[in-house]
Design brief:
mainly beta; Porin; transmembrane; Outer membrane protein transport protein; OMPP1/FadL/TodX; cell outer membrane
Length: about 475
């Protein structure tokens, strides 16, 4: 194996300035635009995606330790930075039926007088495509300390169904995205042990919309018995956001010269979201003064559902969506100079997410139960160093869904998933401190069964079907060791 010079050069200086400029620019632009299609997003750079996250961040000279396992930074001997661009392409398609509160197939009435109706469809592709950024920087300070910075997208989810989706009383658009900036510090106790901890500031933005059939809600609640469904269409849109702090800590251990283990814990982040809601109305023709705005402003809905005080022009809204605690155990073993194998187990406390609650000035608008369960993810993968320039990698991960059959809906139609990943790195002979990385990860997702009864105040309908999902991730990065 070659020994790389530590002496700076003009080329090194140029790369340093370019990489840091790119990192700052990506952080400014990417934090505002990052989003993902599942609640939990792996917070690794491109090499981590290529291994299906196996071994976490305890691999040699892995700057993603700045967020994932800060203790491992203590074993990084030189400053190192990494900028990754991750492209996610997620497909979701629904098959099944939806019914109104009286058990009839869900249709929309276009004209209340003529009685003309419109059949509703399967919602098209409810998935999305998007670029996600991650950046990491680790700087050793003396022989025992190291300082790290990271920008990640730790949580996110998006689904978008067509406006004539038969399940629109459950969901139309849902977008929950987070962007986090973290700083961390590690301390090397000796050549075998290190500890680390960090703080994170995380911004969460949420946007949800769905149809509210007010006549159906009045009928399901007993205020207007037998009221027809499908006449009123009030698309309710809620937009909220918040900035919250959190913390994380870890330990790293090298029991032998060829083994590294790490244990990391990210604490639960309390997240009080604040914003507003509004309505967009597209009722059937011929309702006259008995349309959705009239029903809302008359106070009839408030009489049927005490405390449900809505305004047709919109109002303040608040919600809460805590980020669950997470713990990860990582292991990496170097078999020889060419081959290394890693494995990881991650536990996420999703049981802390009980429901999606929306309030306005202290009055409950809706409280949708989800009752998530704790989950485990298992991964195994490795690196094969073909030569001094080229490294190949692969990995497999099994990730459990926190959703339950009894509460899963079209808003978050998640299922157990399997990641199958391939990747590689190329280190330039002209400057061996610089490498580029590429990874491809395919997601195979179990179908999500939807057998959910809606709340009366949301129309009281039901949905019976399944969502078939699949996804692919392409990741590119540049890594520079100063």
């Amino acid at each position: 194996m070659k020994t790389y010079s530590k002496r700076p050069s003009l080329f090194n200086f140029t790369c340093k300035r370019s990489l840091l400029s790119l990192a700052v620019l990506s952080a400014v632009i990417g934090v505002q635009q990052a989003e993902a299609g599942a609640f939990a997003v792996p917070t690794y750079g491109t090499p981590g995606w290529g291994r299906a996250f196996a071994g976490g961040s305890v691999w040699k000279n892995d700057p993603s330790a700045a967020f994932n396992n800060p203790a491992a930074m203590a074993f990084i001997e030189r400053p190192i930075g990494q900028v990754s661009a991750i492209y996610a392409d997620i497909d979701m398609k629904f098959k099944g039926e939806a019914y109104d509160y009286q058990g009839n197939p869900r249709v929309d009435t276009l004209d209340a007088i003529a009685g003309t109706t419109q059949e509703l469809g399967d919602g098209g592709n409810g998935g999305f495509s998007k670029w996600l950024p991650t950046q990491f920087l680790v700087i050793p300070v003396g022989d025992r300390f190291a300082f790290g910075l990271g920008q990640v997208v730790p949580m996110g989810m998006r689904s978008t169904w067509d406006k004539n989706f038969k399940g629109k009383d459950f969901a139309l658009d849902t977008k929950i995205e987070t962007a986090a900036l973290a700083g961390s510090l590690s301390f090397k106790i000796d050549d075998q042990w290190a500890v680390g901890a960090g703080v994170v500031v995380q911004r969460t933005q949420g946007f949800v919309s769905q149809n509210v059939d007010l006549y159906a809600a009045a009928g399901a609640g007993g205020g207007l018995p037998g009221a027809p469904a499908g006449l009123t269409r009030a698309k309710m849109r809620v937009k909220v956001d918040n900035v919250s702090p959190g913390w994380f800590a870890s330990v790293a251990w090298k029991p032998t010269e060829v083994d590294t283990l790490g244990l990391a814990y990210h604490a639960k982040i309390k997240n009080e979201l604040d914003g507003d809601y509004n309505f967009h109305f597209s009722d059937a023709d011929g309702l006259g003064g008995f349309d959705s705005p009239a029903l809302i402003d008359s106070g009839i809905i408030d009489l049927i559902y005490p405390g449900l005080s809505l305004k047709s022009g919109g109002d303040h809204a608040e919600s809460r969506m805590d980020i669950p605690a997470m713990a990860t155990l990582d292991w990496v073993h170097d078999f020889n100079d060419s081959f290394s194998l890693g494995a990881s187990v991650t536990w996420t406390e999703w049981s802390s997410f009980k429901s999606l609650k929306l309030e306005s000035h202290g009055n409950l608008i809706v409280d949708i139960p989800y009752n998530y369960k704790d989950t485990w993810m298992y991964s195994v993968g490795g690196d094969y160093r073909f030569n001094d320039q080229l490294t190949l990698r692969a990995g497999v991960a099994l990730d459990q869904t926190p959703t339950r059959n009894s509460t899963r809906d079209a808003r978050i139609p998640d299922g157990d998933r399997t990641f199958v990943s391939l990747g590689g790195s190329y280190r330039f002979a002209s400057d061996p401190n610089l490498s580029v990385d590429v990874a491809y990860s395919r997601q195979f997702v179990d179908e999500g069964r939807l057998r959910t009864q809606n709340q009366d105040r949301l129309g009281g309908g039901s949905i019976d079907g399944k969502v078939e999902s699949k996804g692919q991730i392409v990741s590119l990065s540049a890594t520079y060791m100063f």
